[in-house]
Amino acid sequence: MFQLFLRARTHNFLKDRFGGEQVFRARSPERDAETDRTRIEAIMIAIDDALHAAEREQSGLNRRVEDVLARAAVTIGNGDDEYLEREALDNHHQDLFDKEILNGQRRLKELGASIAHFKFLKAAMLSRFPDYRPPASPTN
User: Fold this and answer.
1) For a designed S-S bond to 97, which of 32, 72, 74, 103 qualifies (C-beta 3.0 to 4.6 A apart)?
2) What's the rounded Cα separation, in Å, for the pair 122 and 120?
3) 140 residues of the chain, pLDDT tens digit each
4) Which superkingdom, per the lineage (predicted)?
């Protein structure tokens, strides 16, 4: 009971002190829509940036893995018993190529999964906010 009395007295004191009744005012619907669009756009830009970065990394890594595969093919040779007569240095290079290829293929697999996830996120955002239209990109 005392708390209610204190709250009413405080409210009256502040109303008298700062002048009159405070009127609640909401923003305009246009401003609300712009705020919502800005929030959605920030998320879409982040998803697009992550997607494009992963695709660029995948493209570059794919080229490097193909290059290593080509170099490894040269060191293997083409004879039936090449692996029996291969020099130690060639074996060492072949082992290095194998390790690079496996690491590259592992990362390509991870990037493929990430790209699929980013595309899913983008599709989910577009399905949840069907009125969102990305800003027109400037033409060069």
Assistant:
1) 72
2) 5
3) 556 666 767 767 666 666 656 667 788 888 988 999 999 999 999 999 999 999 999 999 999 999 888 877 776 665 555 555 666 666 676 778 788 889 999 999 999 999 999 999 999 999 999 888 877 765 54
4) Bacteria
Question: Measured between alpha carbons, how far is 46 from 52 in angstroms, rounded to an integer?
Answer: 10
Measuring CA to CA, which residue among 104, 41, 37, 43 is closest to residue 70?
104
Q: How far apart are CA 44 and CA 38, in angstroms?
A: 10
Burial class (CB in 10 A: 0-12, 13-18, 19+), 118: buried
Instruction: Give the chain's largest Cα–Cα span.
Output: 100
